[in-house]
TrEMBL record, chain B:
Pfam families: ABC_membrane (PF00664), ABC_tran (PF00005)
The UniProt record lists the keyword Methyltransferase: no
Domain named ABC transporter: residues: 332-565
Residues that span the membrane, as ranges: 12-31, 51-79, 132-148, 154-172, 237-257
Protein known as: ABC transporter ATP-binding protein
CDD domains xref list: ABC_6TM_Tm287_like (cd18548)
Places the protein is found: Cell membrane
Listed GO MF terms: ATP binding
PROSITE patterns: ABC_TM1F, ABC_TRANSPORTER_1, ABC_TRANSPORTER_2
Keyword annotations: ATP-binding, Membrane, Nucleotide-binding, Transmembrane, Transmembrane helix
Membrane topology qualifier: Multi-pass membrane protein
Length: 595, 573
């Protein structure tokens, strides 16, 4: 769809007007202030004309006649006019900046809150840095344009209309002659903006890609350094940077043509008026005085046109930015909660899958025919080789993804009837990749329950066996974690994630390789805490160490996207199936160990 | 300034652009004269011939201006785009040379803003400077000179006003430069929250903290809005003030002009001329608000770029090429190594001593946070030890070139990190010119062949941020394959098999053996450690026990505990 949009310039132009209208709708919210700005533009333009007019008159009536009578009063009046003029200029800018920044602010906010409504699928397919570019570089384009363009467009249109009126009044014929350049101007503008519009878009797109590349390569520094691939990433960076340069170069070149072209046409129109006017004057159709005044106005007429065309071009760069923002805002949201869906205030924790099938890609499936029942308070372990579909099952329980067919029920209610957020409010997670925010340790644990007291936070940390290492940190719970939680070890991150989940006090608990990076002694210590935590809650556990899961009430053995065995540890052992062989494999190792 | 020195290669295109701009400016100044001629000699005299003749000259001249303008566009765009490209290149190369303590200094989001947004500001400024910015000062200076020739005394009046106004402009510019620097910092902040939300989206969803995050974002967004509005408003004060004072000068000229006319010192025409020139200068001045804004933003951005460019990487590359060639054995020796992370107060490694002989497998065991991963990072010199030294084949690694050192090492970090690109491209990180057979072999040994072959696009499958959903274990195995394809002398596996089931893990470790490299492996599992030649047991940054499985089982209390913890769990059924 996106490609189609880019392919056809016809559609593009249509969308440019649409985008401008849409940007305008943000501005229009501030109608009153905008009217005030407009009024100030009118006022400043009027006063700007009144000043020279008074000066002209003063020279005629006082200086030329050497009549100093009343000159003082006139000059005081003039000073007042100029004071008002400056004041109105200042006010229009002051207000306009407010409106522009408010607009940009809303766009950013809207983009951001939209992100939280998009399905996880959306993020799985995009680079973070590319999305970040939309908030910074693209919106920046809009911001720069709005700060100045609106006022400029206002005043240009104003001057244009004013001069056109005077010109028509002076000589409709010569006005017509002046207007002959308008089609030329229009053609020229169209030729240029057809190119700049496309190039601006390309530039922003490449800039976004570059941004994405930078983000990824800085996040992946460890690998780049360890594999000494600096040169490789630099050369890749240069290719992407070159793309930005190319699009930027041509956009600037074409944009640079505009004032030059306008100046040229301006002169053309002047010569035309002079020539045609002279011809008419010879025939006595116009007076020479008219031509003289008229040329003066004709010159004034092209200036705002010139400004307008420049502004139009700037507007296109804003459009290129805004389009990329609107692209996201218009993305299809996480299948929005169905109309009939309700918020749930309590959740017992019964979870049932009925013949659930799901695929990440359109073709093929990742899991199929999944059916199981987890009673409230039960612990369910998911076992199976990597890539069997365990994490996918978790993704479905958390409703990061929706099943392609089949049903998931929570407390016997179809998940489609429950609002996602209210459901997740009753869940807590310790995910495979523990994510920590920049902030203090305390804040990071408190993320589990925002209204938790300091004591509760510390108690949760204690239960997760994180207390001792936190206390050893220079500022204890108030130690600032730097970005991506670097500075503490992977295992410690997991301990903090567990503390966070403990604090959340959920009905459904999900532990996805929650202890994989934690040493076994610490694991034993927190096992007790986890057991306590799991008590009275439905919990889903993924772990590769069989010993951490054998106490589960129910074990689901998953292979190639299907549940192939189901039952308790003992039952499954008796079955002598897949689980049995997995277990044997580990046991044998343990026996070897014991020797 | 390093940034400005990057302008040097573009001196000639810049000079050409400026020359073309001057041509344009000349034509522009000439045009009013031609217009006057058309009116005075042509129309006023009813001489159509003259109108057409001068009209033709004017058109010719404006064609010249058009040509100059268009050519200027090319040169200005060329210089500014290449300037931008070069700054980006320099910045990015610098960032690639950063040590991890440098990275702690600059949040990722800030580096990104600097490389894109700040560079754009500079590039834009250069382009505009080469096209129009010079025009305003030239017009002002020209206006002053002409006014002075008309009547020194009258012109003096407004000339006296100009220096204070220029000072005022400079003052505003200084102030707004500082303000725009804050704006960019606020932009960093917005970028940071945005980045955190994107990378942590699953967690945020899982805890349904969308609203909380929106509030957090709103805070930084609001800051940005207020700061931007404030900075812009400060720059916008300039013009109204400027205009007001210039206009007051006109009034003064009128007033004193009137007196002088009375005294017969000056003619009316002269007063009119001076008033006209004042008006022109005023007009040129009004361009300054825009110039101030663009330039103060550019200066703010320049200082941010400069900051990065002058940052010294504290990891210094060695230059011992000769000995590097001899790293064929793969013996690793730690000699009294202590290490603490930059800007922290406690040692995470204390007096570490051990030696891994060529081809040996050493397992590192220890509690969470005991320093295992930190120890690993010293070997490819991601960090340098605070005390002591690390030697490979008897050569102090701090004397080696990064490239030579790291070529020998296959490092598989704890978090499997793959880049946007195909599986093939990701594997090529290990060896650029790897043949298909080599890839298959590495993939097979990493126990992921079956998965790769089952993907619809096989080796061409896209991975990373834009790629397919691979499970944690699959990613881990691909990153192991990436290390194996290098055929390294030294293999570092940082708990890289944690997400693998035991069967796969055992197969993988078996497959690695023929590679015959010195292998250091961090693990939680006794079953894995037991296979190693030596086990190092770490506690609080110290090696508290070293030996093989049986040795440790014999004398190390901690090892016994760990052993019990795993055995106990297995047997509790």
């Amino acid at each position: 769809m996106k490609q189609q949009k880019e392919a056809s310039t016809e559609v593009d132009r249509g969308s440019a007007t649409k985008t401008i209208k849409r940007i305008w709708s943000y501005l229009a919210v501030h109608k009153r202030l905008l009217n005030a700005v407009l009024f100030m533009v009118l006022l400043s333009s009027g006063l700007g004309l009144l000043g020279p007019f008074i000066i002209g008159r003063t020279i005629d009536t006082h200086l030329s006649t050497r009549d100093a009578n009343g000159l003082g009063i006139i000059l005081v009046g003039l000073a007042l006019v100029y004071l008002l003029h400056s004041l109105s200029l200042w006010l229009q800018n002051y207000w306009m900046i407010g409106i522009a920044q408010e607009t940009v602010f809303s766009m950013r906010t809207e983009l951001f809150s939209k992100l939280h409504k998009l399905p996880i699928r959306f993020f799985d397919k995009r680079q973070s840095g590319e999305l970040m570019s939309r908030v910074t570089n693209d919106i920046e384009n809009v911001s720069t344009t709005l700060n100045s363009s609106v006022i400029q467009i206002f005043s240009s249109v104003l001057t244009l209309v004013g001069t056109l009126a005077v010109m028509l009044w002076l000589s409709p014929l010569l006005t017509l002659v002046t207007m002959t350049i308008v089609p030329l101007m229009f053609l020229g503008m169209k030729w240029i903006t057809n190119r700049t519009g496309r190039l601006y878009k390309e530039q922003q797109k490449h800039l976004g890609e570059l941004n994405g590349f930078i983000e990824e390569s800085i996040s992946g520094q460890r690998i780049i350094k360890a594999f000494s691939q600096e040169e490789k990433v630099i050369s890749e960076f240069l290719i992407k940077s070159e793309n930005v340069k190319k699009a930027g170069y041509w956009a600037q070149v074409y944009a640079g043509f505009i004032p030059k072209l306008m100046n040229m046409l301006n002169n053309l129109s002047f010569t035309l008026v002079a020539a045609v006017g002279g011809y008419f004057a010879l025939r006595g159709m116009v007076t020479i005085g008219t031509i003289v005044i008229f040329t003066e106005y004709a010159r004034q007429f092209t200036r705002p046109l010139n400004d307008l065309s420049n502004q139009f071009n700037t507007l296109l760069s804003a459009v290129a930015g805004a389009d990329r923002v609107f692209d996201i805002i218009d993305e299809v949201e996480e299948t929005s909660d169905e109309k009939q869906s309700k918020a749930i205030s309590t959740l017992e924790g019964k979870v049932e899958f009925r013949d659930v099938t799901f695929a990440y890609e359109k073709d093929g499936y990742t899991v199929r025919g999944l059916s199981f029942l987890a009673r409230p308070g039960e612990s369910v372990a998911l076992v199976g080789p990597t890539g069997a579909g365990k994490s996918t099952i978790i993704n479905l329980i958390t409703r990061f993804y929706e099943p392609a067919s089949g049903k998931i029920l929570f407390d016997d209610q179809d998940s489609m009837n429950i609002q996602r957020e209210s459901l997740r409010n009753h869940m807590a997670f310790v995910l495979q990749e523990s994510f920590l925010f920049q902030g203090t340790i305390r804040e990071n644990i408190r993320y589990g329950r925002l209204d938790a007291t300091d004591e509760e936070v510390e108690k949760a940390a204690n239960m997760a066996n994180a207390y001792s290492f936190i206390k050893r940190m220079p500022k204890g719970f108030d130690t600032e974690l730097s970005q991506d939680g670097s500075g503490i070890s992977q295992g410690q991150k997991q301990l903090l994630s567990i503390a966070r989940a403990i604090l959340a006090d959920p009905s459904i608990l999900i532990l996805d390789e929650a202890t994989s990076s934690i040493d076994t002694i610490t694991e034993i210590k927190i096992q007790e805490a986890l057991r306590l935590l799991m008590k009275g809650r439905t919990s889903f556990i993924i772990a590769h160490r069989l010993n951490t899961i054998q106490q589960a009430d129910q074990i689901l053995v998953v292979d190639s996207g299907q549940i192939i065995e189901k039952g308790s540890h003992d039952e499954l052992l008796k079955k002598r199936g897949f689980y049995h062989s997995l277990y044997q494999n580990q046991l044998r190792k343990d026996h070897v160990k014991a020797q | 300034m390093k940034v400005l020195s990057l302008l040097k290669p573009y001196r000639i295109p810049m000079l050409i652009a400026i020359f073309l701009m001057l041509v344009e400016l000349g034509v522009e100044l000439w045009q009013p004269l031609l217009m006057a001629q058309i009116i005075d000699d042509g129309i006023a005299q009813n001489d159509l011939q003259t109108v057409l003749r001068i009209g033709a000259i004017m058109l010719g001249v404006s064609l010249l201006a058009l040509g100059a303008g268009i050519a200027n566009s090319f040169f200005a765009a060329y210089a500014s785009q290449n300037f931008g490209f070069d700054i980006r290149k320099n910045l990015y190369e610098k960032v690639q040379a950063f040590s991890f303590s440098n990275f702690n200094q600059y949040p990722t989001s800030s580096l990104i803003t600097r490389i894109t947004n700040d560079v754009n500001q500079l590039q834009m400024t250069l382009f505009m400077s080469l096209r129009i910015a010079l025009r305003a000062p030239l017009l002002v200076i020209g206006g002053i000179i002409i006014a002075l020739t008309v009547n020194v005394k009258l012109a003096l009046g407004f000339i006296l006003v100009i220096p204070p106004l220029v000072f005022f402009l400079i003052w505003i510019m200084k102030k707004s430069t500082r303000l725009f620097k804050i704006v960019q910092e606020k932009l960093d902040k917005v970028n940071m929250v945005m980045r955190e939300n994107l990378t942590g989206i699953r967690l945020i969803r899982a805890f349904s903290r969308g609203k909380y995050e929106s509030k957090r974002f709103k805070q930084s967004n609001q800051d940005l809005r207020e700061r931007t509005a404030f900075a812009l408003r400060v720059t916008e004060i300039a013009i109204p003030v400027l205009l007001f004072f210039m206009n007051m000068t006109v009034i003064a000229v009128l007033w004193f002009g009137n007196i002088d006319i009375h005294n017969g010192n000056v003619t009316v025409g002269e007063v009119v001329a001076v008033v006209n020139y004042t008006a022109r200068i005023t007009q040129a001045f009004s361009m300054f608000s825009w110039i101030i804004m663009v330039f103060s933003r550019a200066i703010a951005s320049t200082s941010r770029i400069e900051e990065v460019l002058v940052t010294e990487s504290d990891l210094q590359e060695g230059h011992n090429k000769l000995e590097a060639a001899n790293l064929a054995g793969g013996k690793i020796e730690f000699k009294h190594v202590s290490f603490r992370y930059p800007d922290t107060e406690t040692d995470v490694l204390k007096d570490i001593n051990f030696c891994a002989s060529p081809g040996e497998t050493v397992a590192l065991l220890g509690a969470t946070g005991s320093g295992k991963s930190s120890l690993f990072q010293l070997i490819p010199r991601l960090y340098d030890p605070t005390k002591g030294k690390v030697e490979i084949d008897g050569v102090d690694i701090s004397t080696l070139e990064f490239d030579h050192l790291r070529k020998q090492i296959g490092y598989v970090p704890q978090e499997a990190l793959l880049f946007t690109g195909t599986i093939k491209e990701n594997l090529a990180w290990g060896k650029e010119d790897a043949s298909h057979e080599e890839m298959m072999k590495a993939v097979e040994d990493a126990q992921i062949l079956e998965t790769v072959e089952s993907l619809p696009h096989k080796y061409e499958t896209m991975l990373g941020q834009k790629g397919v959903n691979l499970s944690g274990g699959q990613k881990q195995r691909l990153s192991i394959a990436r290390a194996l394809i290098k055929r390294p002398r030294i293999l570092l596996l940082d708990d890289s098999t944690s997400a693998l089931d035991l069967k796969t893990e055992a197969k993988l470790l078996d497959a690695i053996k023929p590679y015959n490299c010195t292998t250091l492996i961090i693990t939680q599992k006794i079953s894995t450690a037991k296979e190693a030649d030596t086990i190092l047991l770490l506690e609080d940054g110290e090696i508290i026990a070293a030996g093989n499985h049986n040795d440790l089982l014999g004398y190390s209390k901690l090892y016994q505990n760990i052993y019990q913890s795993q055995l106990g769990m297995a047997e509790s059924s």
